[in-house]
Amino acid sequence: FGQRQHSRSCWPQENVAMEMPQGEKEMTTHTRSHDESVLDMLREDEAFAIEYLSVALEEIDEGGGEDAFLIAIRRLIEARGGMGNLSKNTGLARPNLYRSIAAGGDPKLSTILKVLQALGVGMSKVVSHRADVGSQRTDP
């Protein structure tokens, strides 16, 4: 293979060139961001969505845990059609949803339950998943 030009940094720079061996075709690499991948998994994989929310719920009592749980819910909302779609499915006004689920929001339990149900991952699934995971752990 050809020689790679290096800068002082160990991370490749945009202007770093790599020579292709003669006769080799350059491969096009399609990459997606981590966020795009997570959103796709939240959209398509119910087990992943339940685990994602379960972990956020497990950490809710830690510093910043409430906001982290709301962020997890917002990511699931984004993955599954957005706030407008959720508003239609829950019958809750979009501005109220934005306000309740925003960072620092203080949604009522009934709002969280409606939202999770509309997203297809009811709270009972999230809680029972945590209980199942907890019962499978063994103490060292």
From TrEMBL:
NCBIfam families (UniProt xref): dnstrm_HI1420
A Pfam family assignment: dnstrm_HI1420
Originating organism: Pseudomonas avellanae
InterPro entries: HI1420
Annotated spans, Disordered: 1-21
Source organism, top-level taxon: Bacteria
Taxonomic classification: Bacteria, Pseudomonadati, Pseudomonadota, Gammaproteobacteria, Pseudomonadales
UniProt-recorded name of the protein: Addiction module antidote protein
